[in-house]
Structure formats: structure tokens, C-alpha cells
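FAQ: What does the model actually see?

It sees only this:
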Amino acid sequence: MQDEVCAWYRWIGQAMREVQRGSSGVESAVVRLVNGLIDQSIHWMVSDLHLEPMEGGMRIRYRRDGILQEDARKLPKNIEAAVVSRIKVMAGMDIAQRQRPQDGHIRYEQDGQKALDIRVASMPVICGEMMVLRFMNLEDEMLKVAELGFSETNQQKFEMLIHAPAGLLVICGPMNSGKTSSLYAALELAKLPEYAGK
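And it is asked to produce this:
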């Protein structure tokens, strides 16, 4: 833990010097800082990482077990733009566009072992740009439609809608209610050979 704290403050200092000098690169301190934030989020098994610009610096919050927890550390104001730009580059977003919301995604491999899909959303706010990173483990086994917890009647209706030749199926609900799991289960069922011609 002490090593992580030391590395954090070392990266912050290096990132501030880089921003002042205008230098950067593949192994820059900003890159290491962003990777460190993502690696730490994965290590803590959080579902979301929120980076929120405030007057005194960028607030860092983690959603764990459905509860947002604030990190005592903040990113200094003068490296906010560099951190946001780095995340946007990783997510394939337009770094020049700061006045409208954007969405992107990052396929992130931690130490070449764990593949994650990170959904990224940016939103302009009063003090800058807010970023929200949502973590999904691509190696977790996805649920099947039968495992979603539908009643038998609702499962039959859901499967009928999945295999309808036309139409629109809207899946909505609060955070962590199972929207993405339902969509992946539906996609998995739709590509089964017995439904290929339907």
C-alpha cells in the first residue's frame, strides 16, 4: 500500500512537470497515472470510476457494491486536461470536442492476462469535463436467458421477442439491474444454430 501511495505522488509530480514543459510520450507520467487509476480500480473490483472536476482539483470516486466512495486523493487542476485527453485517446473519442457529451470504449488488458471492456462517457460540466469509466470483465461467463430469473411466462415472451423478424426491444432499468446481462444473453440465444434462419 505504501508503495502505491509513493508511486501515485511520483506520477503526479512527473505529470505536472510534463504538462508545464509540454512533453509527453508513450511512457509519459500521465499515461502511467491513468493506467495506475485503471489498474487500481480493477484491483479493488469497482464497477465504475468517476473523475469529476471541482474547483480544488479533480475528485476521484469509485462505485463499489453499488456505493460511491470518494478517494482522499485528488488530481491537481493543472493536469486534469492531460488526464481527460489520455482517457479520450484510449477510448477513441474526439479530444478536441469538449462542449458535448461523448461515449467510447477501451479494451484493456491488465498484465496481458485479464481482458476488460471499459465503457467511457464524458460530459461537460461547469469546471471542465467529467469522465465515468464502467468496467466489464470480458472473461466472466455470461448468463443464459434461462438463468436471468424470469418467470416461465416472461421467459417465453422474451425469447419470442428476441426471435421476432422485425421490431424493437427496449431494455431499461436502474444501474446494476441486469440490462447488459439480459442483452448479452439475448444475443447469445439469437446466434444459436436452431435460430439462424429466423
